[in-house]
Amino acid sequence: MRTSKPKILVIEDDPQISKFLTITLTSHDYAVIPAETGREGVRLATSIRPDAVLLDLGLPDIDGKEVITTLREWSKIPVIVLSARGQEEEKIKAFDLGASDYVTKPFGTGELLARIRAALRDVVVAQADTTDVELGDLKIDFMKRVVTIRGERVKLSPKEFALLKVLAMNAGKLLTHKYLMQEVWGDAYGEDNQYLRIYISQLRQKLESDPMRDQYILNEPGVGYRMERPGA
Amino acid sequence: MSLSRVRGVSFGKRFGAVLHGYLVRHLSREQPAALVYAVLVSVAGVATVTALAWLLIASGFPSRDMLSLLFVLPVLLSAVLFGLPIALFTVLLSLLAYNLAILPPLWNVAALYPQNVAKGFVLGIVAVIASGLSTQISALASAALRRESVLSGVYALSQEVLGISNLKEMRSSTERKVGALLGAKTSILLCSDIPALDEAAGLCLSQDRPITGPNPGAPAEQVLNIPLKSRNAPIGVLQVPAEVSARFSWKFIATLAAQTASALDKAMLSEAAEGQRRENERQAFLAALLSSVSHDFKTPLVTVVGALSGLKDAPIVRDDPHWGQVVAAGLSEALKLDRFIGNLVEISRLESGLESIKREPVSLRDILGSSFKTLHPLIVRQRFAIEDEAGFPLLNVNQPLMELVFLNLLENAIKYGPADGTIKIIAKRDPEGVTIDIDDDGSGIPPEEREAVFAKFYRSGHGDRKAAGTGLGLYICRSIVTVHGGTIAAVDPADGVGACVRITLPNSGILPVMIEREPEEA
Q1: All structural domains of chain A
Q2: Residue B304 touches partner A, C-beta closer than 8 Å
Q3: ipTM of the assembly?
Q4: Which of A177, B44, B87, B391 could serve as B127's disulfide partner, Cβ 3.0–4.6 Å?
């Protein structure tokens, strides 16, 4: 168990956003270390050893992607990218370089805190001793292999169930296409994620009878999928 | 009369023509003074020479015969100044003066010696040659002068139009200038006036040759229509009175027409260049504005949305219905502003045309899911239904852009439909590709507005009771779908109620994937 507050390094050049993040995170029991530039961020990361990094991609001195590359040379600390709409390409590159998650500006406080909480947790492996998961109206009993929405039974194929299981056990966490393909289909299909897209689509069809209220699976364009309680 | 024609005729013909011309010109009523003047000069010349001869005789000049040579002078003078008839008149006068006043016996008319007749004949030849030469020289000179005035006219025309870049001004200026050069009313018809073109002008344009026809303004008059052409395309027709072709050589008229055409062409080109320059400036300004708006608005929005969403979840607000609503309203407006900016940013990116869109296979439900998540705070009691056939293919599209399309369409459906309505998304495969309908239960779009709603900044007059948008939503939808090779239009709803927007994507925008069906065990 942690004895001290988790340390979050916030690398963001806009003073207002930085101030807002500092206040919000501090009030939610995190210790915040702000950095205005990429170089300062890298320097502070080595000296302070934060538990997670919030990284703005558009920094004044060095490219945000360069910060990730430098951090990844010696550390596996989770890096959450703050990206803007229109920066999709940049964001996808950031994931290739080892970013763990992202939030798109503007983001809600709840969303940001959920990302940080998920990033601070380790990835739960499928074999873990989890018996059931409850997300809003969705209930999954892994032991009995039973899925219900509002008490109604949903019938799934073995692959669909396997996919749902990986997503549900890592609820809140962004899982990349590659990771999901490997977990469900093994190495056979490599980078080709069209099967994954079809299966996700089938899963949605079965789970999201009311697609607005039953938004359990979130698509993160170009990166992967995330399971979440609807409206979170 | 042009220079070549002066050179071409024989001397005799020319002599006749000169005499005729002279008589016409000088014996006409308009110029009796010139004739009197010529006769007076001739008489004065002969008198002066006679007086000179007397002076020489008085001072002891030995040969009176030699003095006949003196009379060449007034004959030459008359020939050069006034032409042949006056010169011959001077010859006659000189012979009389010589015989009567110089040769003895003086003042005796009868005393005409044969050798004096020979002298008169020589003088006559001098008169003819000198006046002939003089006429030719003055004809050359006047032809040169006329050519000079034509050239300077053409030069002035090209100089005058140098500074003009406006087509309208160029047209009236060349009309004036050519009219002045030809001494006749000249008008220019542009191809853009074609509906107004009269038959002869239209024929001239289509057959690309000069055609004479009645003046459309005054049918009794005949006008000559000359085609005006630029490097490759016809520009219009130059209309001059038909009589002009009798006064000027065709070469000259054709030169003027060519000058006119090139002047008009230049004005058209510079107008087009100016228009293009302005358009480029406008686009650059728009791009700069949009990028500044998107950046300067988005950055503060991060804090605004963050702060309001934090407040919304704070216990003190969450537990107070009043403040809860206030904060939720503020947050929803801030998010709406963010969507507007998103539209602006994508429009500027699409219209700059710099980036080619990157496509990837994606399922319709993934795209819809992202839109639903964004719109979740707007939902009151609306229900949504996705009707996609089994085996509906993956879409091969740019995911963020396509998301924006559905975001805008679903936002419209929510905004204009009733709070308890159903919004259907109906996806179908057909041989040409796919169609996706977004169908709401609202008041619908009147048929006469169905095309207009996709125009930039269009805002429906029927949306008065609803919150109006920026007028960019459907415009950006159409831009994005078009970039993907598809179409988007408002169509008759299949259920006869509300609005229905139909997107089609061609086969290049989809990606069928075959997978083996698994049994459902769980």
Answers
A1: 7-120 (3.40.50.2300), 132-227 (1.10.10.10)
A2: yes
A3: 0.84
A4: B87
